[in-house]
Design a protein that fits this description.
By secondary structure, the protein is mainly α. It is 39% helix and 6% strand.
Length: 263
Amino acid sequence: MSKLRSLIAGVLAAGLLAAPLVAVPWAAPAFAEEEIAMPNESWSFNSLFGTFDLAAAQRGFSIYQQVCSNCHSMQYLHYRDLAGIGLSEEQIKAIAASFTVPQGVDDQGNPKEGPATPADQFRSPFPNPQAARAANNGALPPDLSLIVNAREGHANYIYGLLTGYANAPADFKMQDGMYYNKMFTGHQIGMPQPLRDGTVDYVGSMTNDLHQEAHDVVTFLAWAANPEMVERKQMGVRIILFLIVMTGLTYAVKRKVWANVEH
């Protein structure tokens, strides 16, 4: 199932990458092409041997729950998948049970709902795309399951977008209902600033400023888009080591076989 999910995710991510950015309903069309500097944030998962910072991913999931899930779905995740960021079975059951999901119909044919289980998909904030558009002035908030893979710049781009909100320059004409963002092409985006200093409360002494919150939620989104990344990297390293050993053995056998052959 996880391999099938990864294959589906990869195909969908490729499709999203091929789609023009202006197709995202939250986004305003660009008015002029310009070079936008991409942030160079340090990510634990970027290197060859990199892994996900599970503490950051857990904080990021909390941010998604408290902030992002009000508008954005993650339809390719199930609650049981949260074991991948280090949550226990009891924690996952409690999280799932805090949501109600459709559970077919009753004996009279009326739709019924009940507490979610770990096997259920993440509950979407809206029952259908039409309801999502109606609640957001015609805009359809994109699903976040694959958003990190689907944007050029990946984690750095999403981080830059979340931290790129600012007051528009005095000579910059803003459209009604749009927000200025230094990272976004055209600098006008339909999504209000989702994170600010202190948007969420962290347990302990962890700083909850804008940059830390953005870093944590992007870590979670990167994991959601690539839950098999660590396993894939480990397999790649094992394959490389195997090929190195086999190359050495092949060369040794060749030397042994041909050692007594006269040239």
